[in-house]
Specification:
- The protein is an all-alpha fold.
- The chain is built from eleven helices and four strands, in the order αααααααββαβαααβ.
- The protein has helices spanning 22-44, 49-80, 87-101, 105-118, 147-157, 160-170, 172-199, 211-232, 252-257, 264-269, 278-291; strands spanning 202-204, 207-209, 248-249, 296-297.
- The strands form two sheets. A two-stranded antiparallel sheet has the order 1-2. Strands 3-4 form a two-stranded parallel sheet.
- The chain starts with 21 loop residues before the first helix and ends in a 43-residue tail after the last strand.
């Protein structure tokens, strides 16, 4: 099988690879509008307190899930295949994604590149994992870390300074833009907090509440959901077999809403394959996947703990590294359309 079979060729026009990329772009704008609407409802909507609390709880939970949805769908696919031909539009979209998820897209880009370089690798004796978000990084005796500690602690283990230093080694300009993205998200959050305090605040049990104290827990929980999703994308995969690096879920609704993120074994096997081609890629390599023990779970990745056959052992244990058909480093992300 050709390594570039499912890498779409560049085409003229606004969108670099496919007009279907207009869908995630539009939904990224919707995500931003939802974030703004959540702030406006909290700050300016005057309704009975009980109704206000219930409404904000629902909106907060929806925002939490939308962070994981965006990171694992819209933002993720943008890393591997830039949406626009225009470097300027790619830059603006990167800023938009940073504000949507309140996390620098460039930082995510670098951390995710390392993820594909290591593919949730196990640490060698006395060494760290190549993949900074490997489920084995904080595990013991060759086993994956406990799902719940990974889910709720990974957020605090992130090291933006280390990521920024590595980005700077590779590209000074990208390092500057990473700071711009971080500053933009900080300005957005600070602006919402100040405007909420200045315009209107509401009290519960005599305590005055500012929007930022409502926002932060749901923001944190959203990133936890993203880690939970990522955990079961690799729990039970085989770090030694390229075609089995990831764990797939073929839930039709999940893949429709999450831009085919369920085809995760396929994605790690061919990272540059466009999200619209994942089912075709699966059909082409399905027999080889079965022979080499690709794990498939029934529920979406975020609910992988509910799968009756969930297990952290690969279906076909392989002790020796088997790197046949592994993607090369240049096959991981879209280098030709990197923002300037």
């Amino acid at each position: 099988m050709s390594k570039i079979s499912f890498i779409l060729p560049k085409k003229p026009g606004v969108f670099r690879y496919s007009a279907w990329d207009a869908v995630p772009v539009l939904l990224a704008v919707v995500h931003f509008l939802y974030l703004v609407s959540m702030f406006l409802v909290f700050t300016f909507l005057h309704v009975p307190l009980g109704l206000k609390i219930a409404l904000m709880a629902v909106m907060g939970i929806v925002y939490s899930f939308s962070i994981s949805w965006n990171i694992n769908g819209i933002s993720h696919n943008f890393i591997h295949n830039r949406y626009f031909n225009s470097a300027f539009l790619n830059r603006i979209f990167s800023l938009l994604e940073s504000v949507d998820c309140c996390f620098s897209q460039i930082m995510y880009d670098y951390i995710h590149r390392r993820h594909h370089m290591g593919n949730s690798d196990k640490p060698k004796e006395g060494e760290d994992t190549i993949d900074w978000i490997s489920i084995y990084r904080h595990g013991h005796e060759g086993h994956a870390e406990n799902v719940w500690s990974f889910t709720f602690l990974s957020f605090f283990r992130e090291d933006p300074k280390a990521a920024w230093r590595e980005i700077k080694k590779l590209n000074d300009r990208e390092a500057i833009w990473a700071i711009v993205e971080i500053a933009s998200t900080a300005l957005c959050m600070t602006g919402m907090a100040v405007l909420s305090w200045w315009s209107y605040s509401w009290s519960l049990a005599g305590v005055t509440h500012n929007y930022i104290w409502f926002f932060l827990p749901f923001w944190y929980f959203g990133h936890c959901l993203s880690y939970l999703n990522g955990y079961f994308e690799h729990f039970g995969g085989n770090p030694d077999v390229p075609i089995a690096w990831g764990v797939s879920s073929y839930s039709k609704l999940y893949n429709l809403v999450w831009f085919n993120n369920g085809f995760h074994a396929e994605h790690h096997f061919r990272p540059r394959a466009h999200w619209t081609r994942m089912k075709m890629l699966h059909d082409q390599i399905e027999q080889d996947q079965r022979r080499k023990g690709v794990r498939v779970i029934k529920p979406p990745h975020a609910f992988g703990f509910m799968d009756p056959d969930v297990c952290d052992e690969p279906l076909v244990p392989v002790k020796a590294k088997a790197a046949d058909d592994a993607p090369t480093e240049t096959d991981l992300v879209d280098e030709t359309a990197k923002p300037v």
